[in-house]
Amino acid sequence: MFKKAKNIDQAFRQVRNFCCLMLICCLIITCIAIFKSYSTVSSMQQKVYILANGKVLDAYASDRKDNVPVEARDHIRTFHQFFFTLDPDDNAIQQTITKALYLADGSAKRLYDDLRETGYYSNLISGNINQTISIDSVQVSTSDYPFRFRCYATQEIIRPTTITTRSLITEGALRNVSRSDNNPHGFLIERWSTIENRDIKTENRR
Asked: Do residues 167 and 108 both lie within one domain?
């Protein structure tokens, strides 16, 4: 009788151990399944599909810090293109300057006001002068905030009889602001100044 009770107790322990083992295995499998599901959902949330010319392309989201140098350089290029690309048309000048001023602080507005007061834009219009700019390089330091930059560019001032090529070097800093339609990169140029703006050559037009 004692032997039979001992066998029953041993069998109960075995069943209990087996149940505990199965429960632990189920918990491990459940945790793995939850982790895999979360990873898959996170991966899918960072992936979008773009339809271009009838083809489906993959695009992946990334943190802004991965693209800061690229976005900063493009912001600076865009600002300089808007500010220094001028046609002999008052409406065109106002439109491009307005776009540029959305990308910079009061330092750019002060330069614009100074140029306007000296009659720079009026001379462009009356003399049928075009001004274009080519960005040679943009250096941005992201080690410290706000980000310091220096822009090297070449200007061409096209008059009816001559073309003047000028060297332009500017510098300033970038700080973060909210993105908008007028400022898609979410940067603002501040303490902007011109280091160099000198004539390189003047050629007669053919």
From this structure: yes
Q: Tell me, yes or no, whether 80 and 33 share the same domain.
A: no
pTM: 0.70
Is there a contact between 80 and 170 (Cβ–Cβ < 8 Å)?
Answer: yes
* For residue 111, pLDDT beyond 90: yes
Q: Are residues 31 and 94 in the same domain?
A: no
Edge-to-edge strands, sheet with 130-141: 130-141, 147-158, 162-176, 187-204
Q: Which domain holds residue 31?
A: 2-48+53-59
Q: Using the predicted structure, report yes or no on whether residue 66 has a pLDDT greater than 70.
A: no
Q: Measuring CA to CA, how many Å separate 73 from each of 26, 49, 80, 177? A: 53, 27, 11, 16
The CATH number assigned to the domain holding 133 equals: 3.10.450.230
Instruction: Please report, for residues 68, 80, 99, 134, 206, the alpha-carbon distance to residue 85 in angstroms, rounded to integers and kept in the order given.
Output: 25, 8, 12, 9, 22
Q: What is the mean predicted confidence (pLDDT) over 119-130? A: 94
- Specify the number of domains making up the chain: 2
pLDDT of residue 2: 46
